[in-house]
Amino acid sequence: MKAKELIARIEAYAPRELAWERDPIGLQLGDPEQEIQTVMTALDVRPEVVQEAIEKHVDFIFAHHPMIFRPAKNLDLSVPQNRMYADLIKHDIVVYAAHTNLDAAAGGMNDWLASALQLEQVEPLIPNSDGQTGLGRIGELATPQTVADYAIFVRDLFQVAHVRVIANDMNRQLKRIAVLGGDGGSEYPAALAAGAEAYVTADFYYHTAHDVLADDFVVIDPDHHMEAIAKDRLVDLVKTWQTENGWQLTDVFASAQNTDPYTYI
């Protein structure tokens, strides 16, 4: 099959118009007319991920985070990021990214996170006009948990050593929870206004955290890498599409690389 067939199916599931205006989603590198057989899903496209793709004879990397947030100023191949681009071209690997469009899509990133966080009666936190897509999700726990207990659950779920908790009372009971994958600190007022009792998001800013305490709200920050949950879910999607469309792919699998830049001590 050709890369453009997979790209078309991705964009039907996570339409480009759902993405933020400045988000560099879509085809990152390669020829959409190229024949592909092996697909690898990834959270980030980093040099170690590309080396894995080369070793495993991958033709198509389906990533969540765009490969190129900032354009290269030169093609000096002594720069690891530039060398990565050259390696991808040399080995004919197509790279495609679905980022904020996948975040907002129905059945996309934030629905996966809401499900993993055991939320029920889920709806978009900041809905689009269709009521089905939009930024973040909000829902309820079947059984209330304390801030401390739920923070431990979140920590273990996303397999991080620690989570950052912003709360005045660790023993407060929580039932209605909002979540926004990635950097969602600027949207915490929307979670508060929607009636959430806690908000799970990442990269929370120090001074904004003081505002959270002043509002007597709760935030649990488990690290941006929580979005790695997408790797296996994307594999499931591509395999489903393969069955539906009779695609002749030889393998679809998730990258084994942990691209979290943080070490907790």
Would you mind describing this structure in some detail?
This protein is an alpha/beta fold and 265 residues long. It has helices spanning 3-13, 47-55, 80-90, 100-104, 109-116, 147-157, 188-193, 206-214, 230-245; strands at 26-29, 38-42, 60-63, 94-97, 119-127, 134-146, 164-166, 173-183, 198-202, 219-221, 251-254. α2 packs parallel to α3. It starts with a helix and ends in an 11-residue tail after the last strand. A divalent metal cation 2 binds at residue 64.
Explain the layout of strands and helices.
Layout: H1 3-13, E1 26-29, E2 38-42, H2 47-55, E3 60-63, H3 80-90, E4 94-97, H4 100-104, H5 109-116, E5 119-127, E6 134-146, H6 147-157, E7 164-166, E8 173-183, H7 188-193, E9 198-202, H8 206-214, E10 219-221, H9 230-245, E11 251-254
Parallel strand pairs: 2-3, 2-11, 3-4, 8-9, 9-10
Antiparallel strand pairs: 1-4, 5-6, 6-8, 7-10
Features:
five-stranded mixed sheet; 2 domains; 9 helices; Udp-n-acetylmuramoylalanyl-d-glutamate--2,6- Diaminopimelate Ligase, Chain: A, domain 1; 32% helix; 265 residues; globular; single chain; 25% strand; 11 strands; alpha/beta
Q: Count of DSSP E strands? A: 11
Spatial order of the strands in the main sheet? 5-6-8-9-10-7
What order do the helices and strands follow?
Answer: HEEHEHEHHEEHEEHEHEHE
Strand content: 15-25%
**Helix segment tally:** 9
The largest pleated sheet is described as:
6 strands, mixed
Amino-to-carboxy terminus distance: 46 Å
What's the CATH first level of the largest domain? Alpha Beta
Provide the CATH architecture of the largest domain: 3-Layer(aba) Sandwich
CATH topology (level 3) name of the largest domain: Udp-n-acetylmuramoylalanyl-d-glutamate--2,6- Diaminopimelate Ligase, Chain: A, domain 1
Pfam families: DUF34_NIF3 (PF01784)
GO molecular function: metal ion binding
Binding site for a divalent metal cation 1: 65, 103, 224, 227
GO cellular component, one term: cytoplasm
